[in-house]
Amino acid sequence: MQNEPSSSQSSGQARKLITLASTAWLIASGTMLATLSPGLAAHLSLDLALVIALGIAVPMALRKPKPTAGDEGLELALHLARAAERHEGRSGKHHQRIGFIARAVANRMGLSDERCTEIGQAAMLHDVGKIWVDQDVIRKPGRLTEEEREEMSRHVEHGAALLQESSNPIVRLGGLIARTHHERWDGTGYPAGLMGESIPLEGRIVAACDVLDALTSDRPYRPAMSLEQALDVIELGRGSRFDPKVVDALQACRTLLSETYVESTTRRISV
Ligand SMILES: [Fe+2]
Ligand SMILES: [Fe+2]
User: Fold this and answer.
1) Ligand 2 centroid vs 194 CA: distance in angstroms?
2) Count of beta carbons in the 10 Å neighbourhood of residue 12
3) What is the pLDDT of residue 178?
4) Are both 194 and 232 inside the same structural domain?
5) What's the 210 CA to ligand 2 centre distance in angstroms?
6) Secondary structure of residue 18 in the 3-state scheme
7) What pLDDT was estimated at residue 185?
8) Single residue among 47, 62, 77 that ends a domain in this structure
9) Are 26 and 90 found together in one domain?
10) Which of 62, 80, 96 represents a domain boundary (last residue)?
11) Per-residue DSSP letters for 161-172?
């Protein structure tokens, strides 16, 4: 899949365009002022007007734009997602792979490029709440007790509570995904037991991507499955655990995933 420009790249391009337009406007204003104002003409030459205009516009063009509060919020949330993965004893690539696959699936489902990028970024935040799970529980190699499983399952509420009040819409979408990525199509998931399309689409997408990534990753109790084997397991959950349309989209990404997924486990992924 081709990398689409991110929303921050788009806003950077928009800022450049605004700066260029401002520069042109200031030059034109300076020129008109010097050309059309008889009163000032005696005191202000055309050259001087241009110097004044450029003196204002060039520093504006060269000044590095400050990140907005929203951008900082997303950056901080992504740092927390990485920290949560380290806390779990993982490499830090799981959340990136989920972002990559979720974006590809959203693309296959016909969502706009902008929405696919947002889903890819927000999907990376899905497990951020694991940072609150006790390390003895989250790193336990064997079977969890009922109490430990309950503590683990609360990561969805911790993540949602952290992200859903953000001023950044992508972080808020991350909160929605955090809350719903363990719901199941047949209503047997958690935390709310939502069913079918009452589960937000973004949560349904990440649910399937998350399981695919878990199956293709080594676990203390089993080696990683191949992509083909993992997709076969996903197929078994069609209509029960997973939204059939999401499964269709994931299967349609098979070639793309086989070409890029293995490589993506060893490098940073641009989502
Ligand atoms: Fe999770
Ligand atoms: Fe996950």
Assistant:
1) 19
2) 13
3) 98
4) yes
5) 5
6) helix
7) 98
8) 62
9) no
10) 62
11) HHHTT-SSHHHH
User: Does 203 share its domain with 114?
Assistant: yes
Query: Are 189 and 84 in the same domain?
Result: yes
User: What's the total number of domains in the chain?
Assistant: 2
pLDDT in tens, 240-260: 999 999 999 999 999 988 876
Distance of CA 258 from the midpoint of ligand 2 (Å): 20
Separation of 180 CA from ligand 1 center, angstroms?
A: 9
pLDDT of the residue at 127: 98
Scanning the structure block, which residue is given the tokens 């696919």? 116
Q: Looking at the CA of 101, which ligand is closest? A: 2
CATH, residue 90: 1.10.3210.10
Q: How far is the CA of 17 from the centre of ligand 1 (A)?
A: 40
Query: What distances in angstroms separate CA 192 from CA 7, 98, 157, 268, one per listed residue?
Result: 32, 22, 10, 34
- Is residue 68 very low, low, confident or very high in pLDDT (cuts 50, 70, 90)? low
Rounded distance, CA 55 to CA 254, Å?
55
Task: Give mean pLDDT, residues 2-28.
Answer: 48
The Å distance, Cα 2 to ligand 1 centre, comes to 27
Chain segment 179-228, per-residue pLDDT in tens: 999 999 999 999 999 999 999 999 999 999 999 999 998 887 788 899 99
- Between the CA of 128 and the centroid of ligand 2 the distance, in Å, is 9
Please tell me the number of the ligand nearest to residue 214's CA.
Answer: 2
Q: Which domain holds residue 126?
A: 69-264
